[in-house]
């Protein structure tokens, strides 16, 4: 049974329209298992500004001191996740909000504590927990937070969490929803890009800012066995498909 992982970014409520839920229902009717990973950057920045806190972004990652970490946890677990979970429940899905504290779902390590503070990277995903939930036809809705082996919470880029979850579950598809319909090169929206071509796009500065960690995570997912990654603004549109080219090279 195939697994599809969807990472929601931007303003979460903008993604949750009738077409979104119809697609989830279609996938389930086809026997697919669905996992949602949500971001919350828009809401976190909004709350920080309301509280008079400065927002610092470095290479697409939020510099996270102790205060920022507390705001991030508060917003993700107290605002964004309940919003998404409630909408799924209202549509009749068996949705379940999860975080790093759910049986050590997301274990993490510091990425660069000196420069980024409490920003982490995923070291391990509790694949067994997700498998049990998926077999019971639940839709896990996962917040992008991790916990170290010492019990320290970490702010982790949602794209990385989605990619690591997709890798752990050997997903057949990973959708990275963003506020643009794909990767743009000059005046053209690219429909297909190999993992090997991503490095060239980065070197040419075709992609910058928040797209950088997104593409780095997507490359890792493809190399770890995820069949295809789609960068798009809607799950009913494939946007830019990223694929691993190794099999094509063997056939050549």
From TrEMBL:
Family to which the UniProt record says this protein belongs: Belongs to the acetylglutamate kinase family. ArgB subfamily.
Site (Transition state stabilizer): 7, 214
GO terms for biological process, alphabetical: L-arginine biosynthetic process via ornithine
UniProt name for this protein: Acetylglutamate kinase
Primary site of residence: cytoplasm
UniProt-recorded Gene Ontology molecular function terms: acetylglutamate kinase activity; ATP binding
Alphabetical UniProt keywords: Amino-acid biosynthesis, Arginine biosynthesis, ATP-binding, Cytoplasm, Kinase, Nucleotide-binding, Transferase
InterPro entries (alphabetical): AceGlu_kinase-like_sf (IPR036393), AcgluKinase_fam (IPR004662), ArgB (IPR037528), Asp/Glu/Uridylate_kinase (IPR001048), Glu/AcGlu_kinase (IPR001057)
Subcellular location: Cytoplasm
Residues that hold substrate according to the record: 40-41, 62, 155
Known role: Catalyzes the ATP-dependent phosphorylation of N-acetyl-L-glutamate.
Occurrences of domain Aspartate/glutamate/uridylate kinase (ranges): 3-233
Signal peptide bounds: none
One GO cellular component term: cytoplasm
Any Pfam family matching the protein: AA_kinase
Chemical reaction(s) catalysed: N-acetyl-L-glutamate + ATP = N-acetyl-L-glutamyl 5-phosphate + ADP
Pathway of action: Amino-acid biosynthesis; L-arginine biosynthesis; N(2)-acetyl-L-ornithine from L-glutamate: step 2/4
